[in-house]
Amino acid sequence: MPVHAQSNSPADLEFGPRRPSFDIDAALASDWHSERAFVTAWFNGMSMLFPLGEKFFIDSVIHYLDDINDPRLAAEVSAFRAQEANHRVQHQKYNETLCALRSYSLDRFEKNARVRIAWADRELPARRRLATTVANEHLTAIMANDMLAREGTLNGANPEIAALWRWHGIEETEHKAVAFDVFLAVGGTLSERRHALILSTFFFLKDTLRNACIMLQQEGKLWSFREWASGFKFLWIYPGTLRRCFPAWLQFLKKDFHPWQDDNRALIAHWKSEQS
Ligand SMILES: [Fe+2]
Ligand SMILES: [Fe+2]
Asked: What are the residue boundaries of the structural domains of the chain, listed by start?
């Protein structure tokens, strides 16, 4: 079979897993982000989705290993796999520690994702599963870019937990196009990925909010006006994470979209030098 370039990443982009350790256990017992329950629960609720989600992402890409004949994309797939496997380990540890410290049920947080992934594995064709991964990788990449490029998202956060989230964000940026390029190489269509983005965004926001609400309920703060007001401000006004990510979210719907059209390699270099 002739070898075609299937990777569309910048020619000098190189990445692989880094295994830093983070001393986060004590801080997880507290409202580690700005001493605010909602914002802390928002991040913690998101973390609960990662171990199962990232396994699904790896599996959906690895399924197509035999269709990748560009050695560069093959190498990127193994780096992607190693990075996501590492994220799973770190977030599993984060989640287990958090649940032990705060008497949360890990199983309850993972339930929705577990049921949905089992359904997808059973019912969806492999390319639809890959499209779901491509869409979720877009969500993580645009949130990572926002967190690393702009002020505010981690202001007031515990420094060690912030470092963990930045490390994850850097690696999501590095491998942001891997699943996308595999999807292109195996004939993925525009309508498949548009459809996947709408559904993935809905489930991502719903599950994160659900998890945050369970945590707030357990802390006795589910009906705190103060917490919801500060959460609304965080998500929509300042830093306004969801508002700020919306233009980048829309880009994915364009016919000729590619993740590296937003070339943020300088950001990776900057934060890697900060963390080394
Ligand atoms: Fe990840
Ligand atoms: Fe990723």
From this structure: 25-275
